Amino acid sequence: MPFIPHTKQEIEEMLAVVGVASIDELFSEIPAELVSEQLTHVPAGMTEMEVARLMTARSQQDGNYINFIGGGVYEHHIPAAVWELTTRGEFYTAYTPYQAEASQGTLQLVYEFQSMMTSLMTMDVSNASLYEGASALAEAVLAAVRVKKGINTVLMPRTVNPVYRKAVNSIVKNQNIELIEIPFSIENGATDAAAIQNYSDRQVAAVVVPQPNYFGVLEDVDTLTDQAHEIGALVIGVVNPTAMALLKPPGQWGKEGADIAVGEGQPLGIPLSSGGPYMGFMCCKQKYVRQIPGRIVGRTRDEQGDTGFTLTLQAREQHIRRSKATSNICTNQGLMVVAATLYLALLGPQGLRRVAERCHHNTNTLAQKLCATEGVHRCFNQPFFHEAVIRLDRPVADVLSAIEAQGINGGIDLSPDYPELGNALLTCATETRTIDEIESYATHLERILSR
Amino acid sequence: MLIFEKSLNGRTNPSQAPSEDSVIDDIPQHLLRADEPQLPSVSELQAVRHYTRLSQKNFSIDTNFYPLGSCTMKYNPRACNKYAMLPGFLNRHPYSSERTGQGFLACMYELQQMLLDITGMRAVSLCPLAGAQGEFTGVAMIKAYHQSRGDAERSEILVPDAAHGTNPATATMCGFKVKEIPTDENGDVDVGILRQVVGPNTAGLMLTNPSTLGVFERHILEVEEIVHTAGGLLYYDGANLNAIMGKVKPGDMGFDVIHMNLHKTFSTPHGGGGPGAGPVGVNERLRPFLPIPYVIETSGEYRWAKEDDCPRSIGRLSANMGNAGVLIRAYIYARLLGREGMRRVAEFATLNANYMMRKLQERGVDMAFPGRRATHEFIVTLKKLKDKQGVSAMDVAKRLLDKGHHAPTVYFPLLVPECFLIEPTETESRQELDSFISAFAEILQETETDPDLVRHAPHSTPVRRLDEVRAARELDLAWRDESN
C-alpha cells in the first residue's frame, strides 16, 4: 500500500505529457542487465489494520517490567502534553529549517532550547543538539583537539560510561587521537585527581570530567577542573541534565568552569524506546563557538526590522565547508529537541529540581533497602546522585535473571566492564518508582540470595 | 514572544512534578548548585498554547507541498507513528535483557533482512544514527579493510564534484584526503579523468546513484571496473534510493558498502532536522568490519552481535543500538508497502518528476540536463532570469513560499548556476504538481511585471526575509534575563 494517489486515467495522461508509452520507459537509461527481479525477502504489503495487529502483538510480547536500570538512560515521567505536541504534523513532518521564513516555529523553539540548556549548564553557547550522548562526547573531543592544535591526547576517566568510551574511541581513532584512561579509587569510586598531575603543560588537549560518573558517584569537579586547566588542557564535562537542577553545573566548576559540556538529553522528556532516538547536547564557552559542530540558531531581524530566527555560523558546516567542515554532521535531533524544550517548559526550574530530588531520594531508599539483606553492601562510601553501586556475594548476572523472572529489571551487571569491583550491580530508582516497587525488589532480592 | 517572556517567578505546574518533598542532606554543599537555572515558569496551558502557535509558523509535509530535492519529503504515514509509540516499545530500557526484547528484536531482524534484499548487499547494521553517520561508518570500514590487508598507503577518497557536502566532510573525519572528480556535460562522472586520478593511493570512491544531478549514472559499470581494478572500494550514498527501490540494487552495480537514509526512502519523519537513521549494508569482504551491535538469529531467538562476536568490527558509534524508534517506523512502513509497493514508489516518484520537468519546460523553464530523463528529481537553472531580470533563484524560492509551496532545494548541487533541485515524491497528486507549476509560471510573469515583488519575497510568512549577516556578526544565541 504505497500511498500513491494516482488514478489510472491520470497515469495515462501524465505518461502522454512526458511522451512515453509506459512507466518502464522512464527507466530506459538504466543498463538493462542491472534491472532486478521481484524482491524475495520483502513480504507482500499489509493494510493498516493488519499492521496494527502485528505491531500490537510484537509490543506486547516484550512484557512490562518494573525498571531499576539506569546507566545513563532513565525512566522519568513524561508530561502528556510533551508528545501530544511533539507529534503535531507541523513539527513532525517539517524539514531542517533552511528556509527560515517558512520555519520560524522550529527555529524559535531551538533558540529557546539553546537558552534553556545554556542556563542549565551555565555556559555561553548551546548548539541545536547532536545524535546522542556518546557521539556528542566524541564530537567534544574532536572540538578540543581542534582548539589545541597539534595535541592529540585526551584524558578519559575510567568512571565514564564504558559504552561512551568505546564509541568515542571508534569515532576519534580515525584522526589518530589517543585516549588515555585515568584510574579511579576502588574505595570511593571517584576519579583519581592526582593522575592528571602526571601530565605536563601542552601534553593534553582535554580532560573529560563526568558528573555524576557512571557509578552515580559525585566527582570532585572543582579540583579536577582546576588541575586540568593547570596543565593547559580544556575541560569537557559530561553531565546528566536532570542532575543540573541540583548539582553545581559545569560552567561553575573550579576557578574558570568547564570549557565544553555535553551529555545525554534523554532524561528530558524522551522515552526509553530501546535506546533511541535520543539527543546529545553540547554547550561551550563563547570563545569556542566556531569550533563546535552541529546547527546553531541565532536571533536576528527581518527586512522590516522585526525579530526572527535563523540558522547561523553555517560556515562551520559540511554543506558549505565540505572537506574542511568541523564535522560531517548534517542533522540535529530536531524532534527530540521539541520534546526536551516542552519538557523543560512544563517542569520549570522548581519542577525539574523536584524530579532530581525525588530520584535521589528513591535511589537512596533503594540502596538502603537492598543493603538490609545479608551479603549486600554499598560499594562506595562517597556522595552519590541518582544511581548506586551494590556489591553482592555471588555473580550478578544470575541474580538479575532471577529478579527478571519476578517482573523486575534490577540494574546493570558491572562485572564485565569493571572486574576489579567484583560482583557489582549498578541500580537506580527514578521518581517513577513507588515505595511498594522498591520494597518488592528488596524482598525478592533477599529471597533469591537466601537460596 | 519567547516562552521566557511569559514566565513569572513562583508559577509552577504542580501536576507535572513529584508531589512528595524530599530532603537532600547527604551531598556536600560545594557540589550543589547555588542559583536556579533560568527555565520558564509557565502554566501547562501557557506552554501548550505557546508551542502550538509556534508549530503553526512552520511549513511541513502535512500542511504544504514540499518538493525539496534530495530530501524525499513524502507523506509520513500516521500508522508508523502510532504503532511505534505503543507502550511496549516506548518503555523498554536499552540495557534490559534480550530475553525481554524478542518482539522488538524480531522487528529489527526482519528490517535487516528486507534492507539486504532491497540493496543486494550481504550484511547490514542498523546502528548509524543518520545518513552522515552511515557515511562515516562506511568510510571507516573501507579504512579498516585496507589496513587489515597492510595496504595503509591508500589515503585518498574520491568524490564527484556534485556530491553532498557530507561525503567530503566524512572522508576528512576518517582521516582521508579528498579528491574531487568532475562531471561531464551530460551529468555523468567524467570517466576519462577518473581513469587518470585513480591509483595506489585510492582508498575508494563515494557515489550517489541516481546522482545529485537528478540523473542515473550511466557509466556505473565502467566506474566500478576502474575503481576496483585500482584496488579501491566503491561506496554508495543511498540518498536517492527512493528513485530505484525495487528496480535496481546497489549490490548489483558493484558497490561494496552502502548507507540508506530511512528518513527519506522509508518515510520516517524529518522532525524539523532529525532524528534520522542511516543503516549500512556491506558485501562479503566488508562484513567482518560492520559496526556493532546488529541483530543475529539462532534457532528462533534474537540477540545483539557485540564485540565478542565480531572482533574485527570498527566498533560502536553510539551508546546504544541506533535510533530504535525511527527503525520501528521504517519497519512499519516497509510492511505497509510490501515488495510490490516498493517498486511502485520508485515508479511514481519518477513519473511525478518527469511530468513536472516536462510541464515546466513547456512554460519556458530551462533544465540543467534537458537531454536526460529525470529520475525522482531534476534540476532547473534560472541563470537566464538572473542575467536578464536580476532576480535570483533564491528570490523565486522565497516567492514560492508566498504561494503556499515550500521551496525546492536552492543552489545545490553547487556546479549548476541559479539552480533548483526539485523532488516531488510519489505521494503527491497531480493536482498538487499542477498547482506548483502554475505558481512557478505566475512568478516568472511577476519577474517581468513587478520584479521587486519577487526580489523582496516572501511577504505572507510570519517574518520577512531575514538578515543572516547580522545573525552571524552580532551573535545572539540564547536569551538572557536582562531584568537581573
Task: Describe this protein's structure.
The complex is a heterodimer of chains A (451) and B (484). Chain A has 451 residues and is α/β, with parallel strands linked by helices. Chain A has two domains: 66-75 and 349-449, Alpha-Beta Complex (Aspartate Aminotransferase, domain 1), CATH 3.90.1150; 80-341, 3-Layer(aba) Sandwich (Aspartate Aminotransferase, domain 2). Chain A is built from twelve helices and 15 strands. In chain A, strands 2-8-7-6-5-3-4 form a seven-stranded mixed β-sheet, with helices on both faces. A four-stranded antiparallel β-sheet of chain A has the order 11-12-15-14, with helices on one face. In chain A, helix 6 (133-147) packs across helix 7 (162-172) and helix 10 (334-371) packs across helix 12. The mean pLDDT of chain A is 96. Chain B is α/β, with parallel strands linked by helices and 484 residues long. Chain B folds into two domains: 79-337, Type I PLP-dependent aspartate aminotransferase-like (Major domain) (Aspartate Aminotransferase, domain 2); 347-470, Alpha-Beta Complex (Aspartate Aminotransferase, domain 1). Chain B starts with 43 loop residues before the first helix and ends in an 11-residue tail after the last helix. The relative contact order of chain B is 0.13.
- Rg of chain B from C-alpha positions? 25 Å
Mean pLDDT of chain A: 96
Counting structural domains of chain B, the number is: 2
Along the chain, the helix and strand elements of chain B come as: HHHHEHEHEHEHEEHEEEHEEHHEEHHH
Say what oligomer this is: heterodimer
Tell the overall outline of chain B: globular
Question: Could you state the CATH homologous superfamily of the largest domain in chain A?
Answer: Type I PLP-dependent aspartate aminotransferase-like (Major domain)
Fraction of residues in helix of chain B: 25-40%
Going by CATH, the architecture of the largest domain in chain A would be 3-Layer(aba) Sandwich
Which strand-content bin applies to the residues of chain B? 5-15%
CATH topology of the largest domain in chain B: Aspartate Aminotransferase, domain 2
CATH top level of the largest domain in chain B is: Alpha Beta
Count of separate DSSP helical elements of chain B: 15
